[in-house]
Amino acid sequence: MEHIGARDRRVDDVEVRQMRYFIAVAEEKHFGRAAQRLHMAQPPLSQQIKALEEQLGTQLLVRTTRKVDLTAAGELLLARARLLLAEIEKLEQDVKLVGQGASGVLRVGVSGTATYRLMPIIVQAAREHMPGLRLSVQGEMLTPEMEIALEEQRVDVAVLRPPIRSNQLSLKFLEKDELVVALPEDHELASRGLLDLADLADEPFIAYPMSSAVNAISTEACRRAGFSPQIVQETQETSTLLSFVAAGMGVALVPTARRMFALQGIVFRQLRNAPAVDLAVAWKTDNETALLKKFLDLFETPATTEGNQA
Amino acid sequence: MEHIGARDRRVDDVEVRQMRYFIAVAEEKHFGRAAQRLHMAQPPLSQQIKALEEQLGTQLLVRTTRKVDLTAAGELLLARARLLLAEIEKLEQDVKLVGQGASGVLRVGVSGTATYRLMPIIVQAAREHMPGLRLSVQGEMLTPEMEIALEEQRVDVAVLRPPIRSNQLSLKFLEKDELVVALPEDHELASRGLLDLADLADEPFIAYPMSSAVNAISTEACRRAGFSPQIVQETQETSTLLSFVAAGMGVALVPTARRMFALQGIVFRQLRNAPAVDLAVAWKTDNETALLKKFLDLFETPATTEGNQA
DNA sequence: TTGATTCAGAGGAAAAAAGTATCAGTCACC
DNA sequence: GGTGACTGATACTTTTTTCCTCTGAATCAA
């Protein structure tokens, strides 16, 4: 005899068409209207639904001549079938796109805070517009690291904070992020809405490493505000940095994080005349891959505020 | 005339049957054998594949009379169609279960170690407080995987290790697990009761993948202890990981496992100032099913140690 | 060149789906 | 309580789709 793989069944398969039919009926709660919506007559629709119920061995609808209702199983099927159809449509699109030649792998480096805020957006956009593209993301990097990685072609694109030293790289400005103050929630300054940098003159600071752009800007801003920050702890990872703040070890200046970590024990407060750091996307100028170009195009759409990017 | 909703298309729909056919051909790389496997003749199979290609407007296969190969689009379709079919089968099962009187089905994703320790407790609690609920559990997953699965609603709840990037998800803190050292029982350090991380500086490490939270925390902790772990083997499954340790290939850091594997050949040792990883339950914020709410309530009862969760 | 192998096409048979006509149950309303 | 309007199911026919058999064209090995 012959072994029949479970994958190769035939007859009693639920088909996409049946799911569409079921969704229509479930949504309209009315065979007639559903049939109309599907541009078909009512009897074959009834038949298909009945067949579906038989295939699943389960009653999906409670029919009276007066109205149609969903059983629990029907509700489940409705919810999941909708998702499934959406997935199938997405798959169709993706296959078409890949058929038209969008595919490959890009290695992306991302700087500290952008890892959590911007990167998911980028990944999402890439998924949408460049399906088949694999992104290999390395987060929580510092600008100098990324410069070297770009030059050595260990990454293809980097989301970093200018300025950069290298002249082999190209930059595209993305946005300007104001720095905000991260405070332990029980800190006395936490009760105030808007702070001056000078208010922090005597506070212990948790800071990014010296080589980071955020640190450079922060230190410079403090100097102008008339004090030199007392750094008690230095750390590269934003998540770690914020844990230190939560633990009450000090305060920190971090780039605006609109919907950042709902981190317990931390509050964010705005600064008057807040210093700001730029965010830009960088790539090696002589890298002229079609894939890279298309990826960079993803950054075009949002109103690319042409700010200064030094 | 009449507006046709995008959901209600007809003719050019990709059907489940076609996907099955395509998978067979793609796997066999041979129309004849695929047809045999599908219990049909070869010509109709060719026709269906051709029709599929036309519907997608994309070439999926490169045929010579000598062999069949996949295009990039074909590879994509193969991978995704497999997943899709698996989901459809799962859906069928779930609908049947609910039809037979289960009050509902929740799909749960669970991260590595929690699979063995916490999951049985959860399942037990669910059985007790929500009889009729069927849990469909997928274990040994990584946080990024689960995030995507939650967003795409392929799972309803996930037990994962923060941090998460997505902002569509909600989190509820569960517990903090200290990392312990897993050692081969004949290891020289096994004779000591409490270890320092620095003791492991020269040991070969078996580690979870880079994208896992445990790996991130471990690596960071080692860095602080003044060394960079030498990773000789990477693996996703805790059971596999521990087998490597048992085989004497190296040591590993794993989350506390009170009643973990009584795996022969392994001993666990505590660490001084042990790093810890959080465990949380996550769900898609806009999923407001009654079933999900009730399930989440199960996590309320234990004295929810309010720790900070970076 | 010949034979074996493999995929595609043509035309007819079988199966599935859709259409038409009709029936039977329920409810609103007089 | 009877009547008519409305709704979904059934019976049967027509149309469409899928599948099968037979055959042909292309490729490769000997």
What does this structure look like?
The structure is a homodimer of 310-residue chains. Chain A is α/β, with parallel strands linked by helices. Chain A has 3 domains: 7-99, Winged helix-like DNA-binding domain superfamily/Winged helix DNA-binding domain (Arc Repressor Mutant, subunit A, Orthogonal Bundle), CATH 1.10.10; 104-175 and 278-297, D-Maltodextrin-Binding Protein, domain 2, CATH 3.40.190.10; 177-277, D-Maltodextrin-Binding Protein, domain 2 (3-Layer(aba) Sandwich), CATH 3.40.190.10. Chain A is 38% helix and 24% strand. Chain A is built from 9 helices and 12 strands. Chain A has helices at residues 16-28, 31-37, 42-56, 72-99, 114-129, 143-151, 213-224, 238-246, 290-297; strands spanning 61-63, 68-70, 104-111, 133-141, 157-160, 169-184, 194-195, 204-207, 230-234, 252-255, 266-271, 276-284. In chain A, the strands form 3 sheets. In chain A, strands 3, 4, 5, 6, 7, 10, 11 and 12 form an 8-stranded mixed sheet that branches. A two-stranded antiparallel ribbon of chain A has the order 1-2. Chain A has a two-stranded parallel sheet with strand order 8-9. In chain A, strand 8 (204-207), helix 7 and strand 9 form a beta-alpha-beta unit. Chain A is elongated. Mean pLDDT of chain A is 83; it is low at 1-7 and 302-310. At the A-B interface, helix 1, helix 4, helix 5 and helix 8 of A face helix 1 and helix 4 of B. Chain A binds a DNA duplex (30 and 30 nucleotides) through residues 17, 30-32, 40-48, 50, 63-68.
